[in-house]
Amino acid sequence: MTEQPDYLNNPLHGLKLEALLEQLINQYGWEILAEYTRINCFKNNPSMESSIKFFKKTEWAREKIERFYLYEYKNLPKAPEDQFEIPPRDRIIPSHHKPKEPKILKPGQAPIPKDRAGDKNKPKSFGNYRNQSSGGEKRHNDRPSVSSGPVDPYAKSPK
């Protein structure tokens, strides 16, 4: 018989999504959840029903809210490298890690997310379109201006 991993120490084990959201909303409220998780279902006309529906359909968001539950609400130590890629619900939490009091989160103090593309101070490059004009070519800005009056589409047609 194969031995199943022990998930009993994982606070998400046996916890329904609805109960998880109720605990988070009661502790933090919609505004703080929207700010700290950056998930729009908490920001735009939030409701328990729409949030549950969204999390059931969207795996990345469900994993994000489960991570928030484990590491902000239950205040557990961050996952080690070997557990990092595993979804939070499937992680094995060592028995010596016990849930603590929820972290105190204040509005306006959410950490700024890291930019995945690199340095934020670096200007974005959209190509060198503006710098590619050669002597005889017309640039986009050199177009003749269009008058604001009505235009007759048949003005140049033969009569």
UniProtKB/TrEMBL annotation:
Coiled-coil blocks: none
Compositional bias ranges of the Basic and acidic residues kind: 113-122
GO molecular function: DNA binding
Domain of life of the source: Bacteria
Disordered: annotated segments: 80-159
InterPro entries: DNA-binding_VF530-like (IPR018668), SAP_dom_sf (IPR036361)
Protein name: DUF2132 domain-containing protein
